[in-house]
Every structure is written in C-alpha cells, then in structure tokens.
C-alpha cells in the first residue's frame, strides 16, 4: 500500500519501516466514519486485532468497566447471552480479553489461524458497535449491580459481577491507597475517578447514565483500530469497511482528556483501612509520595524509567537505601506510570507507622538533592539503561503475543493525538539517553520534575480495627432504610426483577443463537505435538541440555539443583535463600555492586523453587532450585562469572542486612497476601492430600507463616545465616547440577568455555536424598479484613481409582466457562471460578472474589449430578474440544520453550505420551465426561475445604473448618 492511496475506504496517511520490530507501519483513517487504523505488517503469524475507545469517566461508578463487561453479552449478529464465553470455549485464540484503563477501553484478540482470527474480529466489532446492552438493562444489572430480593421478607442486598470484583480489588490496602492518591492528585480530571468502579459509588450508576456513556464514546470516530501480523490486509480492510464502518458517518466526539492544573503546594493526607479484630496494627501503615508531571516526551519518559530503576528498584538503589536506613518502613518500591496523559512517579513505603509520614518526603527530597548536587552515579544509570534496553530488545511478554504488547504500547501516544509509531522506534531515544549520561541530563530531570515540583501528594493509609465491620453494618443499615422507604409495589417489583434476571441467567441459548458463532472443524487442528528440541551433552561430568531455538542473540541459562538432600524444615530456608541471593555481599562485591554488575551485563537474575510432578505418579516429584539468568551472547563470560560469584561466594555474615531483607519480604506479604488468595487456598487444600501440595505451600502461606515466626524469635533470627549456609552447601554441588542453555551451537561452545566460573565454586560433597514432606494439614478458614472470599474444595482422584486423561482437560474448559461460570459468576456474582485436574490426581475447584461461601460449596457438590445429566450437541462438544486445544497450543518465547522442555524432562514425559493425551482431548465424548461423575463425587465426599475471606463470614461458617486462623502477624 502506498502513501495517500485509498483501500476499502481507508486512506493511507503514513508509511514507515520500523526496524526495531522488523515491520512496516501503515497509519490510516477511514474517511466516511472517522475511524483511525494502524497496521503493522510483519512476518509474525500470530495476528493481533484490537479496537479501542477513549473513555474518560466523570465519576467512580465504574461505568467504563461495566460497559466493557456488558458489550460482550450479546450483539446484533450474535444474539447470545455471552458470545465472549462461547468464543473462549471454541476458539484457537492466543489471546482474547478486554481491558478497562483509566481513560480508554481496549478489546484485543489474537490467533494464528486465519479463519479464527476473522471470526474473533467479527464478534468483537459487532459487540462494541451493536451491543444488545444498548437496549437491555438486565445485562447491566447482571454485570454491574442490582438490588436483590428473592422474597418480600428477605433483606435487601447488592449483587453484580463488577460490584463484587471491585470489592475484591479494594480488599487490598494498596488499592485503597491508589484510590485516595489519585483523587488528591487529579481533583479536576478523569484520573481522579476510578474507571473500574469504587464499590460505594458503583450503586449510584443508573441505566440512563450507562447508556449515555455508551452513546457518547462507542462510535468509530472515537475508535483506534490496530492490526498486526502476516495477513491479507486488503481483505481485512474490506471486511471491516463492508460489515461495519460503512454503516457510520464521522461525528465530533468530545472525549478529550483534560490536563490537571498543577497543585501550587503539596498535599498531605491520611486515611484508615480495615484490619481484622485479632490483627496487629503494628507496622501496617503504607505511605505514598507521588509527583505528577506534565505531558512528557518519549525520551523523558524512558529516562524516568531509567531513574526509577536506578534510584528505587535495583539492588543498588541509593534512594531506597536511604529510606530503609532512616527506618521509615520495611519495604520501599517505586514506579513510573506513563500510560496516562499526565504521568506520575510514586515512591511507596510499607511496614511503617503513621507518625513516620513526615519523614518520607524529607528523606526523599534531601537525598535526591544531595545526589543531584554531587552528580548522579553514571555507572549506576548506565546499568539501569542497559537493563531497560535489554528488555526492549528481548521483547518477551511472558507468552503473550508480541503484537499485543506493541498495540498497547502505541496507545500511550495515539490516545492523546500524538504519534503512535514513535513509541515503537526506541533506537533514537536510547541513543539520546545514552548521550545524556555524559551531561547533566538526568540531574536536570530530577530538579525540574521532582525537586522543584509542587504537584505532589504524600498520602498514608493506616490500619483500624473494626472499620470493615463498621462499613458492612452501614451498608446493611442503608439497604434496610432503602427497603423501609419502599412501597409494597416497589418491593414486589424488585422481587419480580430478581426472578426475571435469574430466569434470564438460567435460560440456555437456543441452538439457532449458538450457531451464529463461527466454529472451526476439528480437522483444522493438528493432532501432532510441537516439541521443543532438547539435546543432552556431557561436559566434564555436568549434564547440559541444549535448546537451539531462535532467540534474537540472547542466551538463557538455567542451573537446576535437586533439593532432595534437604530436610523438610530446610525447605523454608531454601525459599529464603532464593529471596536473598543476589542481594547480599559476596567475596568480590558489595550487594550494591552485585546489582550493578547484573544490570550492566545481564538481562536479569532469579532463583526459583520449583517442584515437578513425575508423570503418572501420585506422590513422586522432583524438588528443584533453579538459578536463572540471561544475557546477550557477547556477555556470556560475564553471566558465568556473576552466577558463580552469587551462588558460590555470597557472604551471609551481615546480620543487619539479612534482617532488613526478611522484614522487606514480610512487608510485601502483608500487603499482597489477600491478592494471592486463590494460590494460597489451592496450595493449602492440596497440601491435605499430597506431598507436592505440602511442598508448594512452603512457597506461599507456609513461607509467610515461617517468616513471621523467625522474625518474632530472636534465637531463630540469629541462626538464619547458619541455616542459609547449610542449605547453600547442600544444594550447590557439582554432582547435583544440570544446566539448560538456549542458544546456537557456536554460542553453546562459548558458554562451555566459561563454565568453570560456575563449576569451580560448587561443592565436591555428596548427599543422600532425605526430603520427606510430613506436615499435616486440615480444613482451614483464613479470616481477613477482605470483603469477598476465595473458596476451594478438592482432593485426589487417584485415591478413588481415577486416571488422568485428556477428557479431564476438556472438563476443565467446560466447567470454567459453563457450569462454574453460570452458577458462581453469572448467578452468584463472583469474579470467576476454575477447576484443575492434575496428572498426579490432585483436583481442585476454586472461586475468586466471591461474595458467597456455603452456596459456592453447594455448587461444587452439585457437579456430579450435572455431569450425569449432561447433554451436549455434537457442535457443543466440538466447541469444548477446540477451546481445550487452544490452551495446549499457547505461544512460547525462547525462555518458555526451554522451561517447558525441562519440565517434560524432569516429569519423565515423552512425545508419545503427549501425543496420546492430545488425541484423548480430540476424541472426547459426552459419555466420557459423564463417566467422570462418580470419581469426582467420591473426591468431593472426602470434604477437603479451605476458604480465605471476610472475617465475619469465615466465623459464621466455622463448622466447616477444623481451624480458623488469621493471616500471620
């Protein structure tokens, strides 16, 4: 396509090659409708589409978020209850979701299959431009909020998916802090409101306001259409024009994001947040010092990312160290947020007290002034710049399509009428920033935007016992008062409305409606497994696993150490070792120098504790400690040298530093525990029935519990260094090492030439396997100040004669998007629920952000009956099979391919077994699904339950649990 030509109504306004992404960018505008379109032409077969709208809210009712949910509940061409769910069930998508941001809403899809990609685009375009919700308030009641009354005598309650989702979000104190912070910093603009919805404001949303919001913003003239990948662009543009945009004419849409007038002086404020009656208030205060900037250039924004990493988040961050040394709090973090029109830089401190609030700004600004006046450490800045540059070049987005990440990135300019292509072209910006290392460029940024900036706020959140109960009682009193002021006719109307909504939710879609969603044929799915090549090499007695996949000149190195030589009580110290290694002094470096070396020469360093279940074994698993790093091939010598220094020459003698790191970790857990609820309860539940479950609990709540015990016991605390050294010596042995390496043959040879830097520091000792997980677990209720629950039930189906098959994976898909979705999310109001069936026999059902508890357990218990009565048409069966195959064929980065190959190696899974499993999925029948009812019923009757949630709800359901406990203090 050439500049200034028209294709299916789209005029090409710019054409530019973008070498950083190996593609060509075409910026277009649809002349009739006013829609903007950016197409990135690349050889990537993982195609991406999104349509986004600028959606600035004017209040915190969550209208943008509720609208995002609601448009996916049926449309003109697809008159189903939830086309989105039907797509997930039966699509080969590599990404399918929708996201509400503070000022935009984005609807992205991705697929490698051409027909599937076309179908996904069709459903999403119809959803946003012709949604059923535009004329059906019942959908807003379901997805947003509604009054609920089953009978006139019942107490009036609130219910709704987004309402309960946001109650879950605001169960975390850091989310509450963000809400208060943004209101203070942006009092006159959209950023002062919560686009997701503040629970107390969500119930103010009317259908009339909802509909007005949709009609104001969901028009092609306010849209941003993005296409990426190897596709027939002429056909794609013709489809978008002919089916959709040709039906619209350009209009003026007032969706401009206004600028907040700078505050003339900083604001200081504090707010309470609720904790449980039995929780300690000590060191539970959180502080946030935030600076708001004007609109920033790409260079300025990337430079502030460098500054944030160098000063606040790297292991050698001087500003973080100054705050910690001032004893303001246990954990310090910071981030630069540039996905809004007026970016901000936040410095947050957890594990503090309210009376230390005033110290934070004083320490931050005095430290920064000293650093600026003396001149910033340019080597530190260069190290952080190298780390950020590595991330840009690696373009690893954790398995998500790379085109999706690029599409979201360009919106950070495009939404504000700036150049979207600029944000893909990072080479000139990196060059400019690197040149700034030779000048006072960074110092001037700090002077202008931090030290001389009055648009700032110091906001603190402090704990208050009973606050949550007080708010819950206020809500009950408010609802009782509302009901008391209703007439009998008004009450009956709500009863009728509740019944009508439930009837709508329980009425299945007709076969005719279901048939409107396009569906692939099973013949279009390959029955073969894509296996990552792995070649074993012996190098001086060390087994090397070579994974030769394209990796952009980056080498990925993983050192695998078996943990079987440890005792059960030492697993905690192995977890602790993974947290502190790389953050302590070594024989050659201080811990700040270690961080500098990592950032200067590597793309990162981590240590993870990873158990791998052995295929077709109930209890056998391989417990691994995996040390990982990555670097450009030219830096492989630095990689081996730094890894050798960290694992072999770390010094554990600095007790003050160890205590500082332990307190930092505890502070993170204090604020993050509730957000990790589904992982905590599933691990606790499976710990009742399996050794691997007990092991995994040591990485979540078990770790948190032992960490608190150690911090509260001076004797145990003084012995931490000795325990860490013992674990280090038992793990890091020559006879206990296997290595995976991603790179070419030439790069592998270079790596082996430098490998002695690692192997020479390893112990020559040998240890016998002795790890035996013996801890006992019971049904447990975890009482918190949260407003919703995480409800888990399960057990082990091998104990009841069950065998893991591909049919169980199909059942996972079916339950997540049908049975559990309908009863727990749609009717129950929870944010979601899932089922997992593992090869070792472990089975778990779990809900999250769930307003219910006992009712959810009843849903789980009703599953066997549902399965026995299950009827599926051949088309519906095919849909679930396709959706399951999609989850088996996720995109893989070089790192993920290597991790997957090593997991298969340790689990003793071969290609034949994987192929057989895949065929079982493809061959699944309704009868096989029905046949799982007995074994699932037997597991459910074992009655293993763990719930984490609201303190009052947990205590009311106390008869379900052997123990009711609070989170560690």
Describe the protein.
The protein starts with 5 loop residues before the first strand and ends with a strand. Strands 1, 2, 3, 4, 5, 6, 7, 8 and 11 form a nine-stranded mixed sheet that branches. Strands 17-18-22-19-21-20 form a six-stranded mixed sheet, sandwiched between helices. 44% of the residues lie in helices and 20% in strands. The protein has 39 helices and 28 strands. α10 packs across α11.
Per DSSP, what share of the residues sits in E-state strands of 2 or more residues?
Answer: 15-25%
Query: Into which percent range does the helicity of residues fall?
Result: 40-55%
Instruction: Please mark out the parts with pLDDT under 50 across 5 or more consecutive residues, or reply none.
Output: none
Please work out how many helical segments DSSP would assign.
39
What is the CA-CA span between the terminal residues?
63 Å
The largest pleated sheet is described as: 9 strands, mixed
- Structural class by SSE content: alpha+beta
Can you count the beta strands? 28
Mean pLDDT reading:
95
Rg, alpha carbons: 28 Å
Shape: globular
